[in-house]
Write a structure and sequence with these properties.
The complex is a heterodimer of chains A (about 625) and B (about 170). Chain A has about 625 residues and is of the alpha/beta class. Chain A is built from twelve helices and 20 strands. Chain A has helices spanning about 20-30, 50-60, 135-140, 150-165, 170-175, 195-205, 285-290, 345-355, 430-440, 445-455, 500-520, 605-620; strands spanning about 10-15, 35-40, 100-105, 210, 215, 220, 295-300, 305-310, 315-325, 330-345, 375-380, 395-400, 415-420, 460-465, 475, 490-495, 525, 535-540, 550-555, 585-590. Chain A is globular and about 70 Å long. Chain A starts with 8 loop residues before the first strand and ends with a helix. Chain B has one domain (about 15-160). Chain B has ten helices and two strands; from the N terminus they run αααααααβαβαα. In chain B, helix 2 (about 15-30) crosses helix 5 (about 55-70) and helix 5 (about 55-70) runs antiparallel to helix 6. The radius of gyration of chain B is 18 Å and the shape is globular. The chains are: A alpha/beta (about 625), B mainly alpha (about 170). At the A-B interface, helix 2, helix 6, helix 9 and helix 10 of A face helix 2, helix 6, helix 7, strand 2 and helix 9 of B. The structure holds flavin-adenine dinucleotide and iron/sulfur cluster. Iron/sulfur cluster (SF4) binds near residues 267, 273, 281 and 392 of chain A.
């Protein structure tokens, strides 16, 4: 399997992974006229309009409509799927699907290995972190501080928001504690709040809840979203380094579908953002990849990087990869070299690749501190129609409980409000589940039609993205026993939650109850947890009030922590520029670099960090 | 001429196709214009016997004709008869529920084990969604006053308006 030296190609940079982070790194380096080899494990089918549309049709006809259902399975670059998740028996690993899970809790989050990465099926919610999220240890004595502050990252937040196209309102975001540089405006006006958001907003005016003996307001606000709305005519772009606004720059122009740019210029309310936006009004990394300057970027899909090689001086000397023609078919080995190497293959895959290469692990932190935003929800039946199944899956949230003194004791949370009712409630599966349940009762004819029209539009679901602390035993490892069809390591995962997060789940119920009471929903129509063996994660928890609670949660898809950044080489994998402490020409980028989780969906922050890191990369390449 | 005559016969009030439509109207609560409007009448009419065979499908339609004639002109009487003669019937109930499921969701559900024990396992009897069009035309979306997820998008900002019959928030 050795490669003749003449075949070895050399570039300024090799970027591993064609998701949003890899795409942005490739763009910044190539715009500075550096040659880039962008290697992508999955297929590149989404780069033509017809290819992308075929995923939409595929989604329509899938019986199980989970997050990866539109995208053809790929044995050569497998991805985790929700339908493979089960409750874990203590002591017995769960070998279903791609991930090997040792528990105690199931790590119930997915990602997608295909060009465009997980942004093909992400929701596209893009809040910034709060300043205190970067300083959890200093402010509240838990977790760890980041090696950068909010102010360090702020200019790159602006650049990231203009790069992917975020619709939001500056004033509204300031109201929840997000500072902005002078003169900055989001590129597009906020996506309108759904009717159900408006009902909840009205009902909760003036509502406060007590958390650890202090009262906090419950305030509904519109979400920042990477989804096309109306361009803000007053907004001007940030300057190229993000510091200051370019007064002569043009207002933002929405970016439409790849290969069909007049489609998708506005969100059209397909209510399908996860798992696929049919019109591509939602940002996906395909939009960035489509515009890469191909004079400088060589894109190779169906190429799985298997190993980094290291020379005697501790520099990375090359990447080894396997490429394939057909999924699950024969592979060809290859090798390429560059001056710098950038891993952008997603938090789990980056850690796997480092472990498989024996790289960057002087601190023994590679793969450790695996975190997510464990997601718990409550659900209820409103007295009147909420008009659900219209609009993006979410359009508003409650951001006012993302920070406070209570974080000394338990996790903060971001609350999202569903526009599609009981979407992730165990076994609810609206509206199909509602049809099956009605048929099981032998309903038919006009009575069936009326019944569905009455109960489904009244569904309300409130979800909590909970914070999780870094813990070294929560980790991804590799093992010779567990390999995929082409001989690459499968991720082996050990994962659990600490009381910091479980207690917060109990607190979250109080918040739900307060909201539902304001909406006039009787107790009998409020639901918190159903005991259900099909739920992967469930536990009886004795809370601080001495009572026992049955709790469960699902994953948010926000994998973080597996190659965390820090101030010291002894307890982190990369430094503040996301450069490996151990290999000066290696960068490891993405949400895996986060030391703590905050409560914001992570991708915007990962993009801002990546843009920041590209400046450091360029300084090395000059 | 022959062709016209064939089409006319096909659509005659008592033709097998029309009987299939009238059964569908009774089971779904949607009128025949709404069902024809989905463009799927002929698809489902052909699909049923292709899965369970002509004989079973023929028996099912015979039972409907009998029920329909007995209940003619009296809606509440017909409703009771449909429940007794069709939905509560171990042979025909599962077929009727599958027909409703087809119309509401575009999905054929594998028939229950008890039914298969009696009538045999048919090769095409697996759970599947008939087509992208069948998915998009699912009547459940109309019943819940919405649009099918990932199809027939209602347009920018439409979600901010009150649903039919509600006041602005
Ligand atoms: C259901 C769901 C909803 C989400 N919603 C949101 C949201 O609303 N907001 C938010 O901020 N985040 C959201 N996320 C998270 C978001 O999708 C990720 O944070 C983001 O996609 C990470 O970007 P990435 O480029 O690091 O990794 P990815 O997007 O996963 O891309 C990595 C790429 O690398 C490739 N790759 C992997 N291994 C190799 C290898 N060995 N060789 C070559 N290539 C490789 C993969 O094929 C893939 O294309 C969601 C996630 C899920 C699952
Ligand atoms: S609501 Fe529809 S159009 Fe808008 S982003 Fe989601 S899927 Fe795309």
């Amino acid at each position: 399997m050795s490669t003749p030296t003449s075949d070895i190609r050399h570039f300024d940079a090799i970027v591993v992974g064609g998701g949003p982070i890899g795409a942005h790194v490739a763009r910044e380096l190539s715009n500075a006229h550096k040659t880039v080899l962008l290697l992508e494990a999955g297929r590149a089918g989404g780069l033509t309009y017809e290819g992308y549309r075929s995923y939409v049709t595929n989604f329509h006809t899938q019986v199980a409509k989970d997050t990866n259902s539109p995208y053809p399975a790929n044995a050569s670059a497998p991805s985790p799927r929700e339908i493979d998740l089960t409750q874990i028996d203590p002591g017995t690993p769960d070998l279903n699907g791609y991930q090997v899970e040792f528990g105690p809790q199931t790590f119930a989050s997915t990602y997608l290995r295909q060009l465009g990465g997980t942004t093909l099926h992400w929701l596209g919610t893009t809040p910034r972190f709060l300043p205190n999220d970067f300083q959890l240890a200093t402010k509240y004595g838990v977790g760890m501080d980041w090696p950068v502050t909010y102010d360090d990252v702020e200019p790159d937040y602006c650049l990231a928001e203009w790069s992917i196209g975020v619709s939001a309102d500056r004033k509204e975001q300031e109201g929840i504690g997000i500072p902005f540089q002078k003169g900055y405006e989001f590129p597009m006006l906020p996506i309108p709040a759904s009717y159900s958001d408006q009902v909840i907003d009205k009902a909760t005016k003036g509502l406060t809840v007590a958390l650890a003996n202090r009262r906090y307001p419950v305030t509904v606000s519109r979400l920042p979203q990477a989804r096309n709305s109306i361009p803000n005519p007053r907004a001007r772009p940030p300057k190229p380094d993000g510091r200051g606004i370019d007064p002569h720059g043009a207002p933002y122009r929405p970016v439409g579908a790849v290969g069909n740019p007049d489609v998708g210029l506005r969100c059209e309310g397909n209510s399908a953002c996860i798992p696929i936006c049919p019109v591509q009004a939602k940002y996906s990394a395909l939009k960035t990849i489509d515009k890469l300057d191909r004079r400088y970027v060589t894109l190779e899909a169906q190429t799985v990087v298997t190993k980094l090689t290291i020379d005697d001086n501790g520099r990375i000397s090359g990447v080894e990869y396997l490429s394939y023609d057909t999924e699950g078919g024969a592979t060809t080995a290859g090798r390429a070299t560059a001056n710098i190497y950038v891993l952008a293959g997603h938090a789990i895959e980056n850690a796997k690749l480092l472990l498989a290469s024996g790289a960057a692990n002087g601190s023994d932190q590679v793969g450790r501190n695996l975190m997510d935003h464990p997601f718990s929800s409550s659900w209820a039946l409103a007295p009147r129609s909420m008009g659900i199944f219209r609009g993006p899956l979410q359009s508003s949230g409650i951001e006012s409980l993302r920070d406070g003194e209570f974080r000394r004791e338990f996790a903060a949370f971001r609350i999202d409000l569903s526009n599609v009712g009981w979407d992730i409630v165990p076994d609810a599966n609206p509206p199909y589940g509602d049809v099956s349940r009605a048929l099981a009762k032998n309903m038919f004819g006009p009575a069936l039609r009326r019944h569905l029209g009455d109960i489904v539009p009244r569904q309300v679901r409130v979800g909590f993205d909970l914070e999780q602390l870094p813990e070294s035993q929560n980790r991804v490892t590799i093992s010779r026993e567990f390999k995929d069809a082409i001989g690459c390591y499968r991720p082996v995962i050990r994962y659990g939650l600490s009381d910091y997060t479980w207690q917060s789940m109990v607190e979250s119920m109080k918040v739900s109850r307060a909201i539902y009471q304001r909406m006039g929903i009787p107790d009998a129509d409020q639901h918190y947890v159903t005991s259900d063996a099909t739920q992967p994660d469930e536990r009886n928890f004795r809370a601080r009030d001495g009572k026992d609670y049955l709790l469960n949660f699902v994953g948010a898809g926000h994998h973080m922590g597996t190659h965390r950044m820090g101030l010291w080489r002894t307890n982190s994998v990369v430094d503040r520029d996301q450069r490996s402490w151990d290999h000066e020409n290696l960068y490891v980028v993405g949400c895996g670099s986060f030391p703590t989780t905050g409560t914001a969906n992570p991708t915007l922050t990962a993009l801002a960090l990546a843009l920041r890191s590209t400046r450091h990369m360029l300084s090395q390449l000059h | 001429m022959d062709h016209d005559r064939a089409v006319a016969a096909h659509h005659a009030p008592d033709s097998p196709l029309q009987q299939f439509v009238s059964l569908s109207v009774t089971l779904t609560g949607f009128d025949d214009a709404e069902l024809w409007g989905t463009g799927l009448v002929n698809t489902y009419y052909a699909l049923f016997p292709s899965i369970v065979g002509d004989a079973v499908f023929g028996d099912f339609m015979t039972r409907w004709n009998y029920t329909h004639r007995r209940g003619a002109g009296d809606a509440s009487q017909l409703h009771t008869l449909v429940r007794q003669q069709i939905l509560d019937d171990p042979d025909f109930g599962p077929l009727a529920r599958n027909l409703i499921s087809l119309w509401y969701t575009g999905q054929w559900n594998q028939l229950p084990a008890a039914w298969r024990n009696v009538h045999g396992a048919w090769a095409n009897d697996a759970t599947f969604i008939v087509s992208s069009a069948a998915y998009s035309e699912g009547l459940v979306w109309k019943a819940i006053h919405a649009h099918p997820i990932a199809a027939k998008q209602p347009g920018y900002g439409s979600w901010a308006l009150p649903p039919d019959g509600e006041e602005p928030a």
